[in-house]
Amino acid sequence: MTGDNGTLTKVQNSKIVTTEAEVEEQIKLAWNSASINNAFWSYNDEQKKNSFKMELEKLYGEDTVTVKTISTKSYYIKIENLGDFTIDNEKIIKINENINFAEDILTEGDYVYYIGPNNENILCRVLYDKNSEYGTQIITENTIEQVTLGANDITVDQQLAINTNFTLNNVTIDDNFKKSVFSYNNGVKTLNQNALKYNNYDLSYGARCAGSVPNEINSEKMLKSYSVVSTKEDGQEWSFKGEFKSEDNNYKIDVDQMKKIGIIGSNHNYILCSRKERVYSYGFSFGFRTIRYRNNQWEDYYSYFIQDNRGNPYGGDRTEYFRPVFLLYEGCILQNNEKDGKTIETAYVLDSLN
What we know:
By secondary structure, the chain is α+β, with helices and mostly antiparallel strands.
């Protein structure tokens, strides 16, 4: 069933596939034909799926094949008039029941239980459904844990931080200030890595901290040199120059969406994966944006942990709760039940075909 160049040739009318065994063999051949390409293993999940789908279409024709990614190395296949199958490391299973794909059922705001990596149930809400440009993404209903940014950030490389160079005149900074700057500049990565600890790779291909860009989770501004020249209260001139990553508007996509569907609030105030700065004539402040309950409402705010006021640089830390967002596989399914996802009591439960 392969041509001289190793790719599959389309099944001819004289060789109509009629048995389940024949279909399974053709699926396996299509998989082998796609994956034999050396470049295949450098593809992302979407590229791998499309490459596999193209080989199946050579056999069965366009518009007759549906392929969904279940996990990094497994797929759901539907071939018109021939059935539904899954393939995982060349092991093919025929599916003889209706599949409730999560992306076909979940809508914005729905309640759904996500099964964490330690088999814990995590109540979530649908932040984006499949009609968005970001695919189906769900956010935890409640905050998960606390994370510390600043001088006591456990992810800080102490030696690199202490060796960071600043240009100073009549200003003194200590190691805590340097560690705080290092933590601030690496904060987007730190927050997203904390979210990733809760990812279950049978259900979602990634996780991120709320407030990151939904389809470019580690997006951030480049390092920028900031300079402040002013006078102290005693009249002495002072100056400071250092490199900080600039503030961004990453948070707006998630925050606007959470406000729109009424899920901005949580059980605690929480941090967003988005920087905030304030630079003025006699000092500066750097930190991350947060969601705070203030004045009887939830609103976006900020949490500074690097500050200077008239030549007195200070590097502290802030410990904040956070909310992970999970990026669901398109082949993720819902447990077969009578739930409708409109209340906590009727929340859907995610599952996998694996």
